[in-house]
Structure formats: structure tokens, C-alpha cells
From TrEMBL, chain A:
GO MF term set: peptide transmembrane transporter activity
Annotated organism of origin: Natronococcus pandeyae
UniProt KW Signal keyword: yes
The protein's name in its UniProt record: ABC transporter substrate-binding protein
Record InterPro entries: SBP_5 (IPR039424), SBP_5_dom (IPR000914)
Taxonomic lineage from the root: Archaea, Methanobacteriati, Methanobacteriota, Stenosarchaea group, Halobacteria
GO biological process: peptide transport
Keyword entries, A-Z: Signal, Transport
Automatic annotation (TrEMBL), chain B:
Main location as per UniProt: membrane
Organism: Natronococcus pandeyae
GO biological processes: transmembrane transport
Top-level taxon of origin: Archaea
Name of this chain's protein: ABC transporter permease
Gene3D superfamilies (UniProt xref): MetI-like (1.10.3720.10)
Ranges where the ABC transmembrane type-1 domain occurs: 104-323
Listed transmembrane segments: 12-30, 106-131, 143-164, 200-221, 262-284, 304-323
Pfam families cross-referenced by the UniProt entry: BPD_transp_1 (PF00528)
GO cellular component, one term: plasma membrane
Family statement: Belongs to the binding-protein-dependent transport system permease family.
């Protein structure tokens, strides 16, 4: 627990640092030649042996409470803290992290905690730490709370955690929940918050700070690199030799340099001043300009841009209109213009991920051919619009009231790949006679007012999946999330559609029921059946129109470091610049 | 004279208050508030986060946001400001005064240095151009200064960074000083102090140069015009006829009289440059006022936005105020003529 004196110490340290900086800034009057030189530590390692990557938060402002979004350096968090489990996206397998093994039954799950993992303040990571983190996650609003009650999470010994399910949950589902969780809640910083939650509070510590506003200046990590200090423009982490992965790491430092713009990041890696980039969108012309020793690693992001309709709108509430628009838009060309190397067009708009390698269709099995691919077909689009009461006059479509079929497509102006995509498909729509106009919005206004506020939208762009690969998550997001009621105005409680794989007929679909069954089904035909029924509902009714699926780009400069090939399965875990280090597959070159 | 000083002081206070009031309400007219900006940030950085989690985080921030009516917020802000409290930054989790105090000196240092250098170069070149009016040097320097003055400073910044930073590796490409340098300002350790100051200058050199390259041309052209005008005055012919040395005429008669009208604009320029260096600071990853201005705008951090705008406004207003008050001291004609109204 952090007592008051420790708080004071932290505060006074940062105050002094600010004062020194102020004084230093004011004192720049005369000059001498610059002073640069390598730092040498007691072990004789020089800072040449540090892996350097960018960070967007200035080091002097960084704080390390991940529940406070202000100035949290999430890239540094990837190496400061170990994740519970890691997801390898090439072969779709879960890899051990803090949790080394797991047993999942219909009623409970048992987690084995990795032994001999130290906290950076000297204590050992135990089952109690894992319990604390899981409980805080649930109190913070994690969906895991839909299946596990905080009262049902217990440490049965130093290295075993048991979770009792409120509702049965399949192993894959459960592990998907675990993969985004890092062990970053040491007792001294977080126990007070947990106790307050358990006492019915809102998560407040003895100093009266809420979990979401609490700041940590010097983190106590659980990963292979520990906080060393901040220098001008850089956060310095040093290898924590007691960590079990440290034996595979042959360099002593991991530095994060403040670089505020993508252009600066590209320049720095190109000129050899930094060694890696974590997930930086880099257009093909920039990648082509990089020297040969810079290796690109692409990993499926498991999300992508889709078109979101306001289903209360007089036009977009009509299934025929949504389907007509889907037939007009060329998804391949849209993805090509948005990111030729990193955006894959959605093959069959069904809400199932994995369009980069085509495995999305495997989930659809023998029904794949029966799903509507929505190939570009303006005749079919015209047919659909006419059946919905529209008519074309002089190349422009009019509704029954004689009003032009026109709408604005809202999107955040700063999302360059989305902007490129939207301009492409708006052109397709305009050529067909639908007057679509792009309205670029400021990010805050877009997410805060248009999508989740009162401003609203007719048509807007949104991710159609949310990072977790299993179809349950994207289909749940599309068919049974709060966004249907609050954002899309889409009633998915019951949907009348043709039976799965058929062109006509009528069957009642209740997505919530199928999702409940899907959460239980594990690697069986039943699992596939529920995915197919839900995917069919997305495909036929188009709650959203998935357009493309993204790949994240990371880069490693191999001038000073060796890294495995991008084909290595471990290079497909988020993210190569941090996970490969843990595996001993990103190492400093020997002299 | 007293009335003049009183009027100017009242004008200063009124200007600052008016700008502050206008800014206070204008920033709140921006689409989206702090909660919206926080939501956008959370969605961008955490695509896996549930709506519940996002709501919870936003709520945690809302706890420290005032939800009083706007006019009450305004009165509270003014009251606290008069007590020296600019409020708490929503995005930085620190008092605005601390945030600005840590950033402003760096921006003032770079901008102040650049303006001083540009001013010296500008008036020297302007005087030379006037003395050689009509010569090739005058034509060349006029064209050069117009050209350089027409290109935004961040373009020079990008070019300098590319050539002198990345290609030739002569200057650092970002930051305020080297990570390996300990910030030291201590008379007892002069070598470390000088090394640090040198390192700071080395890091700021390209940024300062980019401003100088743009700014000197304006001063030069202004100085040239003023000097040409002064050179045609009768009292200069008299001075020459009296046999005064050319050097004496150049500095005492021409230089002094030509530079006077530029005094006011120089003081105002410092204020404008404080705001105008935002993009340059981005180019050089130089965390000064520009960084916080952009952060504050993106995060709809009203207190920090207000703080940054206030610093710029007050700097400009004080620049004008100082120029008004001191102009009479450096130009006795203004004091005699303008005792009441100039």
C-alpha cells in the first residue's frame, strides 16, 4: 500500500524535476559545443545495448496506472507488465504468460500461475495478485463479469486460481477474455481500490483518489524490463534479471523515445536512430523507401472498418436499401485504396473475422456458397431499390416522396485509411446515382456526439469487430451489444429471415439465444452451427456492412538487432517488438 | 502623462479580460467536450474495451469536471485566476500553472532567442540595403528576404531536419537536450552547467534557425524602408555638411531613427510567435507550449487551453503595453507630442 509519505516523496521528486527543467529552459543564453556520449553503467553495458522504440507521451508526463488513460504509455506497458496469456494469430493458439496452464469446465476454470516471476519491488507474483487483477477488471466493467462473479474468484494456493462461472463458458471464450489482461496491479498500489470496491465503494483509495484518476510515477512491473528512470525525451527500462525470461534477453535496456508524429517515427527508424516501431500505420510508399535491414511484421488486428446505419432512418431502416448499397460498393477497390498491403476486403459480409487468409469462410462451412457475397452488381442494386419504392430519374435515385436519395457519411477526419476508403465508396455510390457526401468530423465530436451522443448520424463508419478473434465476439458486438439499442437503433431481439442457406422462406432468429449457446459450445459442430446462424443474420439483414479488415504493422531494424522471420508464429503475437524479446527471438547482435 | 499611463494600464487590463472572456466561451463552443474527447481517446487506444468500461473511465474523469452552469464556471474561473490559480489540467492531471511553467520557459527561450537574432540580422541587413539602395546587393537581398519571408517556418524546419538532422547527422532530430545529459544549472559546477546549456542550444539550433530564416526578412525590409526615408531627410544633409563622421551619422542619425518604428512590432511579434511556434515544436518533437496547446485542443482540456491562450494573450498585451510606455523614453519626439494621445 502506498502511504502518505511515499506520495509526498513522489510529488516532491516530480516538483523538483519540473523546477530544474524550468530553470534549464530559462538559462539558455550562451552556448558551447554539444555534449553527447554513451552512458556506462556499473556492469560495463553501454546504452548501445538498448532497444529503442517510440512513445507518444513525453517522459516527464508519464504515469503508469493503466486505468487512468491520461499520459499512460501503453507501449511501455507491453514490456513492463506480463499478460495473463498471449494469442498467437497465425495458428490461432493461446500461449502462456503469467497464466501457464488452464482447465476450463462448464462450471469453473482453474488457472496455474507462473512460478518465480518477481514484481520489480522484490516480491513474488502469486495467485493473490492474479485474483486482485481479475476482480479489479470486473469491477471496472469487463465483460468477463457477465460470466464470473467477483465472489467466485479465489486463490486456492500460492499458484492456483479458481473461478466459478455464473454462466457456463467455453474454453476459447474464456481465454479470449484473459488475453487482453496484463498483470499491472501490484498490491501496494491497488489493494486499497479493490477493498473499496468490495466494500461497495466506487474504487477510491485512502487519499481520496478514484481508480481512474490515480497516477503512478514509478511503476512496479511484472515483465522482463523494469522502470529505470526518465531522461529528456526517453523512458529507460532496464532488464530485470530475476525475471524468468531475462535469461533469453542479451541486451540490458529498453528505451522509449518521445516522438509525437508518424513522420518523425519513420525518419528515426530509417536513419537508424531507433530500432523498432510498434503498430504504426505506414503507407506502402514509406515502407518501400525503408532500407532493406528494416523488417516489416504484419499481424491481424482483428478489427476493421464497416458502414454503420441508423436503423431508425426512413431509408436505412429498409433492408433492401442496405443490401442495394452493399451491391454498389466495391469492397476490394475500397480496401485497396485505404491500405493496399494492410487492408483486406471482407470476402463475405458475415461478421466473422479472418479475411486476410480466407479462413473466415471456413466457419461458414458448407453454407459458404449460399451466403450473399454482395459482389458489385448495380443491376441487382437497382432491383432492390425499386422494390423498396425508389426510382431512378436522369441517373439519380429518388424516394417515394420524390426526394433525392442522399446522405452524409460521417467519419473522424484523422483516420486516414478510413478517409481514403470512404472517398472510394462514395464515388461508387455517386456513380450509381446515390448522392453520398463525406463529412469529416473531429474525433471528440464524432465519438462523443455523433456516435455516442445526441448529435446522431444517418450513415457513419465504425469498427465491425473488436480485437477478439473468435466469431462469438464480433457477432455479439454486431447482434447483441448495447450499441444496437443506444447507437444503431437496431432491434435484434427477433429477426425474420429466410432459413440458413435458402433464398426464400421465413424463420425467426433470436441472436441472443444463439450467442448464449455459442458461448458454451467448444470446438464442436454445435459451435459452427451457431456461428453460421448468427453470421447468416448479419449477412442477410446487414446490421452493419463490414468493408475491410486491418493488419497492424510493426517494424524492427536489424542493423543492431537480430529478429526471427515474420513467418515465425511468435511474430504473430501482439507485438513483435515486445513478445519476441520475451521469447529470445529478438536479440542484440554480438560484436 | 499620468493619465496616459493610467489609460494604457486600463487598456491592458481590459484587453486581457476581454480576450479571456471571449476565449472562455469560445472554447466551449467547440464540438465535443472533455468527456467526448476522453471517450474518443479510449476508443482509439482500446478497441477491445466494452462500452461499460469506457463509461466508467469517462465517469471517473467527470468526477473532477465542473458541471455548474457556464456563468458560474466563468465567475469561479475568474475568481480563482485572480488568486493565481489557473485550475487543474484534465488531461495532464496537474495544476495548469505547473504544466505551463514547465513548458513555457522552453518556448520563450527558443522564440525569444530567434526573435533577437532575427532582429539583429534584419536591421543590419536593412540598413546595409538602404545605404546601397539600387545596387545589386540591394536587389538581391530584397528578393531573398521577400522569398524567405514568404515561406512558413515549419517548411524550413522540415528541410533542416531532413538534411542537417537525418542525412548529415549534424544536429539532433528532437528533444530539448540529450537524454544522457543531466540538467544542471549550478554555478558551483560550471563545466556541467555550460555543457548542459550548450546541449540545449545545440538541440534548439534548427528550430531557432527556422524562425530566424523567416523573420529576418520582414525586419530587413522594414528597416530598409525606414532607413531610405531617413536618408532623404534634410537634417542628414546638414549633418554631412557639418562634417560629422559617416559612422556617427549611420548609427546615431540613421540607425536610431529608422529602428524606432520597429520597436513596437518586435515586442508584439514575440507574443505572436509564442502561439505560432506550435507546428515547429511538433516538427522537432520539442515539448514546449505547442505540445500542450495541441494536447489541450485534442482532449478538450478547457483549463489548459485557457492557460495557454492566456499566456499568449498576456504576452502580446504586455508587449504592446511595454512598447507604449517606453516608446517615449527612446524617442523623445513621441514623449513631447504624445503626452496625451499618441
Amino acid at each position: 500500500m502506498l502511504d502518505d509519505s511515499e506520495h509526498e516523496t513522489c510529488d516532491s521528486k516530480s516538483w523538483r524535476r519540473r523546477n530544474v527543467l524550468q530553470a534549464a529552459g530559462l538559462a539558455g543564453v550562451t552556448g558551447l559545443a554539444g555534449c553527447i556520449g554513451g552512458e556506462t553503467d556499473d556492469d560495463g553495458d553501454t546504452d548501445d545495448s538498448a532497444f529503442v522504440t517510440p512513445e507518444v507521451v513525453p517522459p516527464e508526463n508519464m504515469q503508469f496506472n493503466s486505468y487512468n488513460d491520461n499520459n499512460y504509455p501503453w507501449r511501455a506497458g507491453l514490456i513492463l507488465f506480463d499478460d495473463f496469456v498471449y494469442f498467437e494469430k497465425l495458428e490461432n493458439t493461446f500461449q502462456p504468460g503469467i497464466v501457464t496452464d488452464w482447465t476450463v469446465t462448464e462450471t469453473d476454470a482453474t488457472l496455474d500461475v507462473r512460478e518465480n516471476v518477481p514484481w520489480h519491488d522484490g516480491g513474488e507474483v502469486t495467485a493473490d495478485d492474479v485474483v486482485r487483477k481479475l476482480k479489479i477488471e470486473i469491477y471496472d466493467g469487463s465483460n468477463l463479469g457477465n460470466y464470473v462473479d467477483v465472489g467466485g474468484i479465489d486463490a486456492t494456493d500460492d499458484y492456483t486460481v479458481e473461478l466459478a462461472f455464473d454462466q457456463p463458458l467455453a474454453e476459447d471464450m474464456f481465454l479470449n477474455f484473459l488475453m487482453e489482461i496484463s498483470l499491472d496491479t501490484p498490491e501496494s498500489h491497488y489493494q486499497e481500490f479493490l477493498e473499496d470496491f468490495e466494500d461497495g465503494g466506487e474504487g477510491e483509495n485512502s487519499a481520496g483518489e478514484m481508480l481512474g484518476e490515480y497516477t503512478i510515477d514509478e511503476p512496479i512491473g511484472s515483465g522482463p524490463f523494469a522502470f529505470d528512470g526518465t531522461a529528456e525525451q526517453e523512458l529507460h527500462l532496464e532488464r530485470f534479471d530475476d525475471h524468468p525470461d531475462a535469461d533469453d534477453i542479451n541486451f540490458t535496456g529498453y528505451h522509449f523515445r518521445f516522438l509525437d508524429t508518424n513522420e518523425a517515427r519513420w525518419q528515426e527508424i530509417e536513419s537508424g536512430q531507433i530500432d523498432g516501431l510498434h503498430t504504426v500505420f505506414t503507407p506502402p510508399n514509406i515502407v518501400e523507401g525503408f532500407p532493406d535491414h528494416i523488417e516489416e511484421f504484419r499481424i491481424e488486428a482483428n478489427y476493421g472498418m464497416g458502414i454503420m446505419w441508423n436503423h431508425d432512418h426512413e431509408h436505412f431502416g429498409q433492408r433492401e436499401v442496405r443490401q442495394a448499397i452493399a451491391h454498389v460498393i466495391d469492397r476490394e477497390e475500397t480496401a485497396q485504396n485505404a491500405g493496399p498491403d494492410t487492408e483486406a476486403p471482407v470476402g463475405i459480409p458475415s461478421g466473422v473475422l479472418s479475411n486476410h487468409d480466407g479462413s473466415a469462410e471456413e466457419w461458414l462451412g458448407e453454407y459458404a456458397d449460399e451466403f450473399n457475397e454482395y459482389e458489385t452488381d448495380t443491376d441487382r442494386a437497382a432491383e432492390l431499390l425499386e422494390s423498396a419504392g425508389f426510382q431512378r430519374d436522369d441517373g439519380t435515385w429518388y424516394d417515394e416522396n420524390g426526394d433525392v436519395l442522399e446522405f452524409q457519411v460521417k467519419a473522424p477526419g484523422g483516420y486516414s485509411d478510413w478517409v481514403d476508403g470512404i472517398q472510394t465508396f462514395n464515388q461508387h455510390l455517386n456513380d450509381f446515382g446515390i448522392e453520398a457526401e463525406f463529412l469529416a468530423r473531429d474525433e471528440a465530436a464524432y465519438w462523443g456526439q455523433d456516435i455516442y451522443g445526441d448529435e446522431g448520424f444517418d450513415v457513419a463508419l465504425h469498427e465491425w469487430a473488436n480485437v477478439q478473434r473468435h466469431p462469438y465476439f464480433s457477432l455479439e458486438w454486431l447482434l447483441d451489444s448495447g450499441d444496437n439499442e443506444n447507437v444503431r437503433n437496431y432491434d435484434a431481439s427477433e429477426i425474420e429471415l429466410p432459413p440458413l442457406g435458402e433464398e426464400s422462406g421465413s424463420e425467426r432468429y433470436v441472436p441472443a439465444d444463439d450467442l448464449e449457446e455459442l458461448a458454451l459450445a467448444d470446438g464442436t459442430d454445435e459451435e459452427r452451427t451457431h456461428v453460421q446462424r448468427l453470421a447468416w443474420a448479419v449477412n442477410q439483414d446487414l446490421v452493419m456492412l463490414p468493408i475491410m479488415e486491418k493488419q497492424d504493422q510493426s517494424f524492427i531494424a536489424t542493423e543492431r538487432f537480430d529478429a526471427v522471420s515474420p513467418d515465425d508464429p511468435d511474430a504473430h503475437v501482439d507485438f513483435p517488438t515486445t513478445y519476441l524479446v520475451r521469447q529470445g527471438k529478438l536479440t542484440a547482435k554480438s560484436e | 502623462m499620468r493619465r496616459y499611463y493610467f489609460e494604457r494600464t486600463a487598456q491592458l487590463v481590459f484587453t486581457v479580460l476581454a480576450v479571456m472572456t471571449l476565449t472562455f466561451f469560445l472554447v466551449r463552443l467547440l464540438p465535443g467536450g472533455p468527456a467526448d474527447a476522453l471517450r474518443a481517446n479510449l476508443i482509439r487506444n482500446n478497441p477491445e474495451m466494452t462500452a461499460d468500461q469506457i463509461d466508467r473511465r469517462v465517469e471517473a474523469q467527470l468526477n473532477i469536471m465542473p458541471d455548474d452552469p457556464l456563468h458560474v464556471q466563468y465567475l469561479t474561473y475568474i475568481t480563482e485566476l485572480l488568486q493565481g490559480d489557473m485550475g487543474q489540467s484534465l488531461s495532464q492531471g496537474a495544476p495548469v500553472t505547473d504544466v505551463i511553467a514547465s513548458a513555457a520557459p522552453w518556448t520563450i527561450f527558443t522564440v525569444g532567442t530567434a526573435v533577437a537574432i532575427a532582429f539583429v540580422i534584419g536591421i543590419s541587413m536593412g540598413a546595409l540595403m538602404a545605404y546601397r539602395e539600387g545596387s545589386r546587393f540591394d536587389s538581391g537581398a530584397t528578393i531573398t528576404s521577400v522569398l524567405l519571408n514568404s515561406v512558413p517556418d515549419y517548411i524550413y524546419g522540415i528541410i533542416f531536419l531532413w538534411i542537417l538532422g537525418y542525412q548529415l547527422d549534424i544536429f539532433p532530430t528532437g528533444g530539448r537536450y540529450s537524454s544522457s545529459t543531466e540538467p544542471t544549472i549550478n554555478l558551483l559546477t560550471p563545466i556541467q552547467t555550460l555543457a548542459f546549456v550548450g546541449d540545449v542550444l545545440w538541440h534548439a539550433a534548427l528550430l531557432i534557425s527556422a524562425i530566424v530564416l523567416v523573420a529576418w526578412g520582414g525586419w530587413a525590409l522594414g528597416m530598409r524602408g525606414n532607413s531610405v526615408q531617413v536618408l532623404g531627410e534634410d537634417y542628414l544633409r546638414v549633418a554631412r555638411l557639418r562634417g560629422l563622421p559617416q559612422r556617427h551619422i549611420a548609427f546615431r542619425y540613421v540607425g536610431r531613427n529608422a529602428v524606432l518604428p520597429m520597436y513596437t512590432s518586435m515586442l508584439i511579434t514575440i507574443g505572436f510567435l509564442l502561439g505560432g511556434s506550435i507546428i515547429l515544436e511538433q516538427v522537432f518533437s520539442y515539448p514546449g507550449m505547442g505540445y500542450y496547446m495541441i494536447e489541450a485542443l485534442e482532449r478538450r482540456d478547457y483549463p489548459l487551453m485557457m492557460g495557454v491562450f492566456l499566456v499568449i494573450t498576456i504576452t502580446v498585451a504586455i508587449g504592446v503595453y511595454v512598447a507604449d510606455l517606453t516608446y517615449g523614453l527612446i524617442d523623445p519626439r513621441a514623449r513631447v507630442d504624445g503626452g496625451g494621445s499618441s
